[in-house]
Amino acid sequence: MAAIEMRNIVKRYGDGFQAVDNVSLDIADGEFIILVGPSGCGKSTLLRMIVGLEDITSGDMIIGGTRVNKKAPRDRNLAMVFQNYALYPHLTVFENIAFPLRLKKTPDAEVTEQVNRAAELLQLTEHLDRRPAHLSGGQRQRVAMGRAIVRQADAFLFDEPLSNLDAKLRGQMRTEISRMQRRLGTTTVYVTHDQTEAMTLGDRIAVLRKGVLQQVGSARQLYEEPANLFVAGFIGSPPMNFVPGRFRGGEIETPFGTVSASSERLRKVGDRELVIIGLRPEHFEDSSLVPAEKRPHGQIFTAEVDVTEWLGHELYAYVPYEAPPEVTQQLEELERELDSEQMRTQLVVALDAGSRIRSGSKAQLWFDPERMHVFDAATGENLT
Ligand code: ATP
């Protein structure tokens, strides 16, 4: 097993395009790390540089203490699991899993033992005689993982392994991959563009945007203390609400009224005028349901609720609004990158399922300003 250290890694493709920009990241031995970001952010390129399928323009890639920049993929002892599984259609499940052992001319008895052990771990024992065409997508995925397991690689590298599966199976496979990784304790790097996958798998998440590492941390850290607007908008579903505002006299003027927070909370805002405040949907409440002891800490505003959705455990309310044009550039760019159309035009609030607020009504909503984030409107940096 091995730690993976990346030092100032840069990737420039032949046409001069810089896909990875000075990334430094330490992955501990046995750690499960997720590389996540929107399409084109450079996550597959980074993974391919770890495994050796792509040249490194500059920087050092160190695996198990050895610099591997010039090492061929086969000499790195890593196992990669691709989106399309790369199974051999003419071979049985047994022989597909055994393939790396056959290449090494491993004795038959040992092959049988190792394949059986992997098959048991992945619940494939009863399918060992089948061919890939007679397996479900999830089973094929497990065969691909079985092949990685028998190689006894120093690290597993996954490139969007679940993107061809339906939602239910994806959920199941997520649990299986977590379980397998925990049991084997093998260093694992997992690439995905799906923030739910990123949050539910792995020990830490590394968020990439346009080839630049934005933040590395646990799901909780990224959710509660996002470094910038991009991470805040990317992690969480429904996403954080962003509302442009003007910071004046220690308060923030927004389309929903003036927001006050403690000077401690606003300390880093300094003399900036244009800011963007961020509030998670679940940080709003129906003001009539807020317990008396919480009321004094919060702020209440009147919202014109367009549509509500009752989901049993909570109620979503959509509140349209018009963001002032001078501070929308950051949000416009974010909408494009995150493929979301509504960051500048509506709030999404998640209320207690017992709320009586209904579509097309005026509602009194409550929130606690001490929970809000304040971002620099120009750079997106989180100032709270
Ligand atoms: P996706 O989820 O869509 O696969 P990604 O984050 O994995 O995206 P990469 O595949 O790493 O992104 O690509 C990063 C950027 O580098 C993209 O803009 C892509 O167009 C560009 N790129 C990838 N391969 C090449 C290449 N061989 N030559 C030039 N540019 C490339």
From TrEMBL:
Keywords: ATP-binding, Cell membrane, Membrane, Nucleotide-binding, Sugar transport, Translocase, Transport. SMART domains: AAA. Transmembrane segments: none annotated. This is Multiple sugar transport system ATP-binding protein. InterPro entries: AAA+_ATPase, ABC_transporter-like_ATP-bd, ABC_transporter-like_CS, ABC_transpr_MalK-like, ABC_transpr_MalK/UgpC-like, Mo/tungstate-bd_C_term_dom, NA-bd_OB-fold, OB_MalK-like. PROSITE patterns: ABC_TRANSPORTER_1, ABC_TRANSPORTER_2. One of its GO terms (cellular component) is ATP-binding cassette (ABC) transporter complex, substrate-binding subunit-containing. Residues 4-235 form the ABC transporter domain. GO terms for biological process: carbohydrate transport. NCBIfam families: PRK11650.1. The lineage of its organism: Bacteria, Bacillati, Actinomycetota, Actinomycetes, Micromonosporales. GO terms for molecular function: ABC-type transporter activity; ATP binding; ATP hydrolysis activity. The keyword Phosphoprotein does not apply. It comes from the Bacteria.
